[in-house]
């Protein structure tokens, strides 16, 4: 599993990179803001949502602190996806939020 800090991710976004970000937090958590452009798929729905995730591009996975996103990364890797866990999660995110 690959890792990236929230600061490194923000630098990529600021540089204009087109990133595929999946937020695996619950609905109530996402209501408080999500990284702009991120796709919301709660952790409990990842396994049944594999057909909604592009296997041909790297995916960046975020949760509140990094634990659930690590579980999602493991599940996705087992299914052939290229994934990166966003270390520190949304509690360390200092970029813009989408509501």
From TrEMBL:
InterPro entries given in the database record: GlpE_sulfurtransferase (IPR050229), Rhodanese-like_dom (IPR001763), Rhodanese-like_dom_sf (IPR036873)
Domain of life: Bacteria
A Pfam family matched in the record: Rhodanese
Domain Rhodanese: start-end pairs: 15-98
Matching PANTHER family: FAD-DEPENDENT OXIDOREDUCTASE, SULFURTRANSFERASE YTWF-RELATED
Protein's name according to its UniProt entry: Rhodanese-like domain-containing protein
Organism: Psychrobacillus mangrovi
């Amino acid at each position: 599993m690959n890792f990236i800090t929230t600061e490194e991710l923000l630098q990529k976004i600021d540089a204009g990179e087109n990133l595929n970000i999946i937020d695996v937090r619950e609905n109530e958590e996402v209501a408080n803001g999500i990284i702009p452009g991120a796709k919301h798929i709660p952790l409990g729905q990842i396994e049944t949502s594999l057909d909604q995730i592009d296997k041909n591009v790297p995916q960046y996975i975020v949760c509140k602190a990094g634990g659930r996103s690590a579980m999602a990364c493991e599940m996705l890797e087992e299914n052939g996806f290229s994934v990166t866990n966003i270390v520190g999660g949304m509690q360390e995110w200092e970029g813009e939020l989408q509501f």
